[in-house]
């Protein structure tokens, strides 16, 4: 790891460059320097920015490799930094294991790190040949190869359509199921080349992009994890505490946007009601009306920032 790379000015390393660094720090600038959970430690870039600003940080990650990396990088912060190997959907149990009931902030920067994408053997990228794996948590059993080889045609079609928004979902699912007795789907390139043959190159992006996204979301239950994290965060945040959530594709952002809208409305109105009624779920104040996005300078130095959207809400 190079501590001298240009990205280190923004809290980054060769492992991962954190997106929206200033906006993320700003999200927690509430005048109280308390305890923040970084639910997605990754390379520890966001955690370090928070530590430098005087917060205590508990970082979670389900990838042991990421936790080893961040432990080394952040050891110099001593007791102000702790990390726990955990899915963020188990945030309540992870904090209870440290005797913590409430926190002042929860940050989540969803998806995979650059390091996970770059390591061919993790199997996340159709650009690199490796096992068709895609598990963020290497102790989990189900891999992307299992999904491709074992799911029914209708299940494959559903995940390609719902999680990949792939318009050729039916055709791809049908062809996989027809050919999988004879053809191997053990590697990333075997699957990527197969999809290229079936649907051809029609757009700028690689034709396997959406299927790879769908498999990753399925293998790691990414949307279920986000829903549970957001729900549990409501009980864990102190009044005035904030959640800052960074999404990278429309499926994630839609969940976050709806969750905040559902909890930030004081009243609900329905056409059949004579007047609006109090919203029983009301417990958040939306801090960002529109998502915060990276400026041109950040997009230039960090390609990943181009699709990043940060939404912030405060517990009331
Ligand atoms: C985009 S990276 C985070 C990068 C980090 N903010 C930084 O500055 O280096 C996302 C990380 O979250 C982890 N992750 C994703 N989903 C998770 C989940 N449900 N529970 C725990 N960790 C998760 C991934 O393993 C990955 O290391």
SSE inventory with pairings:
Elements: H1 21-27, E1 35-38, H2 45-52, E2 56-61, H3 64-74, E3 81-85, H4 91-96, E4 103-109, H5 114-118, H6 144-150, H7 153-164, H8 169-179, H9 188-199, H10 209-219, H11 222-236, E5 237-247, H12 250-264, E6 267-268, E7 277-278, E8 284-286, H13 296-301, E9 309-315
Helix pairs in contact: 7-8, 7-10, 11-12
Overall helicity: 25-40%
* SSE ordering: HEHEHEHEHHHHHHHEHEEEHE
According to CATH, the homologous superfamily of the largest domain is Vaccinia Virus protein VP39
> Which structural class fits the helix and strand makeup?
alpha/beta
Give the second-level CATH assignment, the architecture of the largest domain.
Answer: 3-Layer(aba) Sandwich
Terminal Cα span:
41 Å
- Oligomeric state of shown chains: single chain
Looking at the structure, the CATH topology of the largest domain is: Rossmann fold
> Per DSSP, what share of the residues sits in E-state strands of 2 or more residues?
5-15%
**What is the makeup of the main sheet?**
7 strands, mixed
CATH domain class name of the largest domain: Alpha Beta
Q: Unreliable runs, pLDDT <50, ≥5 residues? A: 1-6
């Amino acid at each position: 790891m190079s501590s001298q790379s240009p990205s280190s000015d923004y809290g980054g390393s060769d492992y991962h460059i954190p997106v929206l660094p200033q906006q993320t720090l700003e999200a927690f600038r509430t005048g109280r320097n308390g305890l923040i959970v970084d639910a997605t430690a990754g390379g520890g870039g966001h955690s370090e920015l928070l530590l430098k600003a005087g917060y205590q940080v508990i970082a979670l990650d389900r990838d042991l490799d990421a936790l080893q990396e961040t432990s080394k990088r952040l050891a110099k912060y001593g007791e102000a930094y702790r990390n726990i190997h955990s899915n963020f959907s188990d945030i309540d149990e992870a904090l209870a294991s440290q005797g913590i009931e409430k926190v002042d902030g929860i940050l989540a920067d969803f998806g995979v790190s650059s390091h996970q994408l770059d390591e061919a053997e993790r199997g996340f990228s159709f650009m690199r040949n490796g096992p068709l794996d895609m598990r963020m948590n290497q102790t989990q059993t189900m891999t992307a190869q299992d999904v491709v080889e074992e799911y029914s045609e209708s299940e494959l079609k559903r995940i390609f359509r719902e999680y990949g928004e792939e318009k050729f979902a039916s055709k791809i699912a049908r062809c996989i199921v027809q050919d999988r007795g004879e053809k191997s789907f053990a590697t990333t390139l075997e699957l990527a080349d197969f999809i290229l043959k079936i649907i051809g190159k029609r757009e700028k992006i690689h034709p396997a992009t959406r299927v790879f996204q769908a498999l990753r979301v399925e293998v790691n239950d990414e949307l279920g994890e986000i829903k549970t994290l957001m729900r549990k965060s409501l009980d864990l945040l102190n009044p005035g505490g904030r959640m800052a959530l960074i999404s990278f594709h429309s499926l994630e952002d839609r969940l976050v946007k709806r969750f905040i809208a559902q909890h930030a409305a004081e009243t609900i109105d329905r056409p059949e009601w004579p007047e609006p009624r109090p919203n029983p779920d009301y417990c958040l104040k939306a801090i960002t009306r529109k998502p915060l996005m990276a400026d041109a300078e950040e997009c230039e130095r960090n390609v990943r920032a181009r699709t990043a959207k940060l939404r912030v809400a405060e517990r009331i």
